[in-house]
Amino acid sequence: MNDIYQFVSGPLAWVAFILFIGGSLYRVIAMIAEVKKKEPFIFTYMSLKYSLRSILHWITPFATYNWRRKPVLTVVTFAFHICLFVSPIFLLAHVTLWDESWNIRWWTLPDGSADIMTLIVMASCVFFLVRRLTQREVQFVTFVSDYIILGIVAAPFITGFLAYHQWFGYPILMILHVLAGEVMLVAIPFTRLSHMLFSPFTRAYMGSEFGVIRKSKDY
Amino acid sequence: MKKGMIIIAGILFLSSVMLLSVHSQEDVTEVDRSVFTNPQRPAAVFKHDAHNQNAGIENCNECHHVYEDGKLLEDESSEDQRCADCHGPEADGNKPSLVKAFHVNCKGCHEKQQKAPILCGECHVR
Q: Fewer CB within 10 Å: C terminus or N terminus of chain B?
């Protein structure tokens, strides 16, 4: 079991991080190059002020009309995204591994708080699944790939939760947990999860177009 | 008569002390985590004597090392000290924190040996 774990947490982790970082840079650069080629006109009205105005409104709960229109979805979305980022980055066990490998460490969460945040991520995934299955307007834009992507996001948290509590099959769950995390990292640049990379650009574009051209708000 | 009593009492006292110390050595079943103010994980399972027998460790200083100015002193050993006497809660220059010292000392060797636990929950068993 040790050699499988060392393989997934060693060479495979390198592959995952290289694909994640390299793929992300490629997607962003390719997007900008495409805009330059097809719609260079956009650059004439891109505005830092309206870009930031849009981004700040959309990352603040209830600061946009749409966030107010669907309060439950808004609360779940914000709780989900905050916990999704904060719990793995500030998890004591993860920081311990960074420290042992690279001699760098940073602030960590108490394990109990990380456990609750993991539960929030898993409950939010169930909420998103039910929403996709039951809401007509969501069904309309749902593909099979969206369910797969939801599974890819939920998997590291489910396996991490079970491994942390050591409820069953501990060593196998640890290996699955590392694998699931790597699959998610690689999926970010190449699936709809790329909204992590593109959403600031989308908002900057929308904010600028609404602010400069239409002279109206985009929130 | 009185002298004999004192000698007997002395022997009894010494042997009980020795018995106690032998007993406490055998009794080490987990890493002492009493020095941590807010431990997040269960104490690491560590049966001192069984471990050393399995691992074929004969020299105390394979684990109970002594460093001076960042250099390992080959013939010195520190089994008469607690790990926490040298390793504080935070790293100090090249000297790792207590947590990291435990992890590097145990897991580092386990990784080299390829047959001992290296996953978090294999030592921090719930």
A: N
